[in-house]
Amino acid sequence: MTLKRALGALAALIILWLLLPTLVIIPMSFNSAASFNFPPQGFSLQWYENFFTDPAWLRALGSSLQVALVTMVVATSVGIMAAIGLSKVRFRGKALLESYFLTPLIVPGIVIAIGLYSLFLRFNLLGTLPGFVLAHTVVALPLVIINVTASLQGVDPRLEQASATLGAGRLRTFFSITLPLIMPGVTAGALFAFVTSFDEIILSLFIQSPQLQTLPVKIYNSVTQASDPTVAAVAVIAMFTSVLVMLTAQFATRKRKRVSA
Amino acid sequence: MVHATSTHNRGKRSGDGGDPARLAREPKNWRPFLLLIPAFVIVSFFFLAPLVDVFIRSISDPVLGIQNYVWLFTTPTNMVVALRTFGTSFLVTIVCLLIAYPYAYLMTIVSDRTRNMLQLFIMLPLWTSILVRTLAWLVLLQDTGPINGLLQSLFGIGPLPLIRSTFGVALGMSQVLLPFMVLPIYSALAKIDKRLLPAAANLGARPVTAFFTVYLPLSRPGIFAGSVTVFILGLGFYIIPALLGSSKEIMMSALMYQQISGFLMWGQGTALGIFMLTATIVVLVLVGRLAKGTSLFAGRVK
Question: B243: which chain A residues are within 8 Å (Cβ-Cβ)?
Fold first, then answer.
């Protein structure tokens, strides 16, 4: 019992260490002084005002949302197809193909980044919407495949056969039988894809151009080049966006657990 | 959130095609292969092709040959940077392991409700981008920051170099990578039969002996999976060392950036990239040998 209590205390400390430091950014964003010194002095909304009146920041937010939404659509549709394909085919090397789709998760991001930079230089894709979307799709796709595959495992294959027996075509069966059944996994995968793209920084740093910068890139440039306290407000906005999306994803997975149970 | 481990449970997957009758009915079902094409094309063009491009540049820029690798291995600074990168990543792995193990163990001995809470708390940080979390550390650890202020007023020391030092980098990286250690260790610990420890005690083993001879070896798959993930992810970190580290003590990722973006030395930068990639593969293979049956993606979340 004493061991359990000691471990509990340790766990509490670990949780504090994980969560508390990040929250420091919230009071900083309401600082009335133009500095990063903690504790902040006074209360002001000037940095939020700065953000919402500065076209450069707003453009970065717009680009980020645009890239993240398109990435979400592309990664989710491609990921659903791949997951279903993988669940239906049987051939030697299938496990290899599966790993191939997931490898972008474990290859150091910086190496993919310099590769994409080199490739995009040749094909003039630097700082373009397709460039950003395709780069982000590579790292978002594995998350969609993982989530959809997990959902597919809970689907009884006889349902699809029944649907086919009753005369439904493959597409009809997919949209009226399979898709509703795997919807929780699809939702979670799509939201993960969105957040991955929205928060992605390392690939984005290399493939950016002055024409197209996502929010994290602009935050990074602003921190390393100029000390503009506006970044605290931007960071809070970015943080709440991804937390909100992830909360939704959490609900989607909850539902799935209940369904499969 | 979902563990990738589940994707490896191929045996469970509805056995389609396993049924001989069905196989006979659909002798060559090639249609599902079409579904794999888009993903294959995207991953090949925007993941594999860039990596191949990196390799080609490393042996052909500026001229064909291995001069970039000669430069890589004969320049003392490079070796110092490589050692620092591996060392920091190793340090972070150890720190995460020491913190994650008791946490994961606690998860196995509490009620379901508490366990879900503990799991949620470990996942929560993943919901915020590394950049935002690093900014927060920057505020806290800077020379004029609250931690140095506290140290000064309490003990009259400082300001300590909490940032622009390996300490800052290791602190920031451990905080970000901890979940990737906790989850695989937890899934290994959860599989261990709870009766083994009392059994060892019955046979006369003291708790410490029982832990080291029975429990710890059984948890090895989780330790390996978590450590590999943390170590490999740590090698490639760029943002945290750039913001919390010292510009005089850079890591490999920053050196790559410097060579390519700063000096336009594509050959040298890409050779560093291939070196890092090779190191990653070597670690994976070595640990894969040590821990048979450890899934590469165990504990992969998000």
Answer: 223-224
Residues A111 and A223 in one domain: yes
* Cross-chain Cβ contact A107/B17 below 8 Å: no
Q: What is the pLDDT of residues B40-91, one digit of tens each?
A: 999 999 999 999 999 999 999 888 989 999 999 999 999 999 999 999 999 9
Task: Name residues 45-74 of chain B within 8 A of A (Cβ).
Answer: 45-47, 49-51, 53-54, 57
Q: Measure the CA dihedral B171/B174/B179/B182, to 10°.
A: -120
* CA gap B108, B115 in Å, rounded: 7
Q: Which amino acid makes up residue B289?
A: R
Q: How far is A55 from chain B (nearest CA, A)?
A: 21
Q: Which domain covers residue A20, as residue numbers? A: 1-44
Phi, psi of A209 (to 5 degrees): -150, 165
Task: Let me know whether A193 and A162 are in one domain.
Answer: yes
Q: Is A77 inside any structural domain?
A: yes
Indicate if the alpha-carbon torsion angle A131, A182, B16, B2 is positive or negative: positive
Coil vs helix vs strand at A212: strand
Q: How far apart (Å, rounded) are the C-alpha atoms in residues B255 and B273?
A: 10
CA distance B224 to B215: 15
> Please, what are the domains in chain B?
84-248 (1.10.3720.10)
Dump pLDDT digits (tens) for B208-256: 888 888 888 889 889 999 999 999 999 989 999 999 998 888 999 999 9
CA distance readout (Å), B259 to A121, B210, B253, B269: 16, 52, 10, 5
- Quote the pLDDT of residue B24: 45
Say yes or no: A128 and A154 in one domain: yes
- For the entire predicted model, the pTM comes to 0.86
Residue B195 half-sphere exposure toward CB, CA atoms < 13 A = 0
Q: Are residues A26 and A69 in the same domain?
A: no
Q: What does A33-58 look like in DSSP terms, one character per residue?
A: SSS--SSPPS---HHHHHHHH-HHHH
A213 and A247 belong to one structural domain: yes
Domain count for chain A, please give it: 2
Shared-domain flag, residues A61 and A120 = yes
Amino acid in the structure at residue B202: N
Tell me, yes or no, whether A123 lies in a domain. Answer: yes
Residues 190-219 of B with CB under 8 A from A: none
Regarding whether A28 and A63 lie in a shared domain, the answer is: no
Distance from CA of A163 to the nearest CA of B (A): 16
The answer as to whether A49 is a domain residue is: no
The token pair at B86 is 């591996």
Q: Both A123 and A168 in a single domain?
A: yes
